[in-house]
Write a structure and sequence with these properties.
The protein is mainly alpha-helical. It is built from 3 helices and no strands.
Length: about 120
């Protein structure tokens, strides 16, 4: 197994986690009224941020699925090494993405009730 493959996979995990951070920041910025039009109530502005969170989570989920295909064991022994090396990280990031997607959907549907 080359170091380049391992580095590429670690960078992919970091990219997926950065998508999750952006998903959370969208709601933080919405709650802080960043870029909010004056005619828009803060509650509905925050509620709309749930849609942005959901979109970023969908993109992250697509990337984490591709990541799993990259580490899934095949007929070659080095692919099983990658699977054993990155399986825990994959599971953790998958749960983070799933929880953020559920949170984004809840904010999208009921975010105005939080204000």
């Amino acid at each position: 197994m080359t170091v380049a493959i391992e580095t590429r996979l670690r960078l992919e995990l970091l990219f997926i986690l950065s998508l999750c951070v952006v998903a959370v920041l969208a709601e933080v910025f919405a709650a802080a009224a960043v870029l909010k039009p004056e005619s828009e109530p803060l509650a509905s502005w925050f509620q709309r941020s749930g849609a942005i969170t959901s979109v970023f989570c969908i993109i992250a989920q697509l990337r984490i699925n591709n990541f799993l295909e990259s580490i899934r064991g095949g007929t070659f022994s080095e692919s099983w090494v990658l699977f054993r090396m990155f399986n825990k990280q994959h599971n953790f990031v998958s749960w983070v993405v799933a929880l953020l997607a559920v949170w984004g959907a809840c904010v999208w549907g009921y975010g105005d009730l939080l204000f």
